[in-house]
Amino acid sequence: MKELEDRIRRDGTVKPGNVLKVDAFLNHQCDVALFDRMGQEWARLFSGKRIDKILTIEASGIGIACVAARHFGNVPVVFAKKTQSINLDGDQYVSSIYSYTKQREYPVIVAKRFLSQGDHVLLIDDFLAKGNALHGLIDICHHAQAVIEGIGIAVEKGFQEGGRTLRAEGYDVQSLAIVEAMDASTGEITFGSREG
């Protein structure tokens, strides 16, 4: 999606350690108009597929998933929580994932009443690098016996293995921007072509 690539070039910041900061418009301050066009593009890419629910993970995926849901007939958005709380009651699906940016492992939790056997689910997230978060969501979907119709990603780090692994596993991964290389010393970002 050229608009997203242009925005990353303009407002993104490359940090040492393969970190791409897009907090000015994607995952801290939110450009809702951009989110809307991203949702429209995912709806085009996944047209013809039955989507009953969108599943994401807190916190950065929630905004884009909620706006995208409007383009899928206002389906419910369910987000996996990263911490146990008194508000999480009843039976739960739990998986464990390792966060590269937080450098620690944590649980992801979805109440069973919000994800059911036979639900047709679209996974959406802001970033795909190694694929750990998505594999946690996939694990939850498998426990729920939900059908994963596809995976929508805002920014994929194509130089890391997550996207290749998920596609090799048979998932329909549609990333709106694929970063093939980035240089912290120059700030240069190179994009590759999208799958599909």
From TrEMBL:
It comes from the Bacteria. It catalyses: XMP + diphosphate = xanthine + 5-phospho-alpha-D-ribose 1-diphosphate. Pathway: Purine metabolism; XMP biosynthesis via salvage pathway; XMP from xanthine: step 1/1. Xanthine binds at L20, N27, K157. Keywords: Cytoplasm, Glycosyltransferase, Purine salvage, Transferase. 5-phospho-alpha-D-ribose 1-diphosphate binds at A129, K130, G131, N132, A133. It is an enzyme of class 2 (transferase). It holds the Pfam family Pribosyltran. GO terms for molecular function: xanthine phosphoribosyltransferase activity. Residues 48-146 form the Phosphoribosyltransferase domain. InterPro entries: PRTase-like (IPR029057), PRTase_dom (IPR000836), Pur/Pyrimidine_PRTase (IPR050118), Xanthine_PRibTrfase (IPR010079). HAMAP family: XPRTase. Belongs to the purine/pyrimidine phosphoribosyltransferase family. Xpt subfamily. Converts the preformed base xanthine, a product of nucleic acid breakdown, to xanthosine 5'-monophosphate (XMP), so it can be reused for RNA or DNA synthesis. This is Xanthine phosphoribosyltransferase. It comes from Bifidobacterium favimelis.
